[in-house]
Amino acid sequence: MNSEIHHPKKSSIPMPVSRAEALSGGRQHYFTGKPCKHGHVEVRFVSSGECMECSRVRAQRWSTKNPDKIRTMRKASAARNADKVTERYNRWLAKNPEYHANYRQQNSDKRALYEAKRRSAKAAAMLGHLTEEQLEQIAAVYAEAKRLTEETGVLHHVDHIIPLQGRDVSGLHVPWNLQVITGSDNSRKGNRLPLDNQALDAVQARKDEMVAPPRKPVTNPYAA
């Protein structure tokens, strides 16, 4: 039997020493100071009587047996808390500014391949009959993204309303399929169609001029 002692954190309110005492006081945890059946001297849950260490071991065992369910749950949680996830990532990135530079340097071959495929997709998605005025409009969109980034300090991207490598359809690299959005919004959107009504109306109005025949999506080696 492996006996481990994890004392409860100090608190101004004494920890109940029995499950009955915790129940009567409306508490969620209690600490007997005695080992559980697996030898852990730990805080226990009132709901089940299980100690925290046993709960951690059981959760880890379940996670190991159910990796697909864990991935699905994590994706669903990230989608529900997209703003919090982005904020936490930005805080981490601020503390580790060298991360992206180091990754690109260590994976220069993957980055070069991805950029080559991206340029190829953009070239294939550009209509051959664009006028000089329309080409200038494309340049103006990129200039606006740069201006907003410099003025606000928030990274802005040029996004294709219908993505160049969409899951169901692929968009064109034309002025009316471009919009300027923040980098975090662009990351959340990914290769999906827009969800807001205004963007969807714009897509519907010029659908034939924005959508190209579907192509196999380009895999981003930097995606999680």
Task: Characterise the protein shown here.
This protein is mostly helical and 224 residues long. It has two domains: 4-65, no CATH class; 98-212, no CATH class. The protein has ten helices and eight strands. It has helices at 19-24, 52-65, 67-80, 82-95, 99-106, 108-125, 132-152, 183-189, 197-205, 207-210, and strands at residues 4-5, 29-30, 40-41, 44-45, 156-160, 170-171, 178-182, 211-212. A two-stranded parallel sheet has the order 1-3. Helix 5 crosses helix 6. Residues 1-5 and 213-218 have low confidence and may be disordered.
Distinctive features:
single chain, 224 residues, mainly alpha, two-stranded antiparallel sheet, 51% helix, elongated, disordered N terminus
The radius of gyration is 27 Å
Order of strands across the main sheet? 1-3
Principal-axis shape equals elongated
Number of helices: 10
Tally the beta strands: 8
- Structurally, the number of domains stands at 2
Measure the end-to-end span.
Answer: 40 Å
Looking at how many chains there are and whether they match, the oligomeric state comes to: single chain
Low-confidence stretches: 1-5, 213-218
β-strand percent reads 5-15%
Question: What is the averaged pLDDT score?
Answer: 79
Structure in a nutshell:
51% of the residues lie in helices and 10% in strands.
Secondary-structure blueprint of this entry?
Elements: E1 4-5, H1 19-24, E2 29-30, E3 40-41, E4 44-45, H2 52-65, H3 67-80, H4 82-95, H5 99-106, H6 108-125, H7 132-152, E5 156-160, E6 170-171, E7 178-182, H8 183-189, H9 197-205, H10 207-210, E8 211-212
Parallel strand pairs: 1-3
Antiparallel strand pairs: 2-4, 5-7, 6-8
